[in-house]
Amino acid sequence: MGVIMEVAVKYKLVMLVDDNPLDNLINSQLIETAGFALKINKHESAKETLDFLKNATPEELPEVIFLDIIMPVMDGFQFLEEFEKLGETITKKCKIILLSTSDSFKDLNRANKNRLVKKFLNKPLTVEMLSAINI
Prior knowledge:
Helix content: 25-40%
Strand order of the largest sheet: 2-1-3-4-5
Order of helices and strands: EHEHEHHEHEH
Low-confidence stretches: none
Number of domains: 1
Shape: globular
CATH class: Alpha Beta
Number of helices: 6
Radius of gyration: 15 Å
CATH architecture: 3-Layer(aba) Sandwich
Largest sheet: 5 strands, parallel
C-alpha cells in the first residue's frame, strides 16, 4: 500500500479547451506534474464547453480556463463573446487564459482588449509559464 502525499496545488479545478486532443493530453500532464491543479476538465469544442458551463454547479466551475484561440466551428474569441453572456457567477469565478500558436499581433491586441482575458500565452505551455500564473 502506497503513501498518499498531499501536494500543495494552486487551483482546485482548471479546464482545457482545445480541439487538439494531443495538446489537451500534454497540457493536462504538465498541469498535473507542476502541481498547478488538483483536477483537470478537458473539452475539445468551445460549444461543448459553453453547454457544460451553463449547466455546471458552482463546485464544477473551473477557476482557470485555458482556451485555445484557433478552433473549428467556434474559435476562442467567439467563445469569449458567448461566455460573457453566461452571467457574473460564472465570469467572475472562471479566469480565462488564451493559448495560441499564433504570433499574430492582431490576436494579442484583441485578447488584451477583452476584460475577461487574464493572460495570453503562446503554446506550448511550460512549467515556468504555469508557475508565473497568479490570477
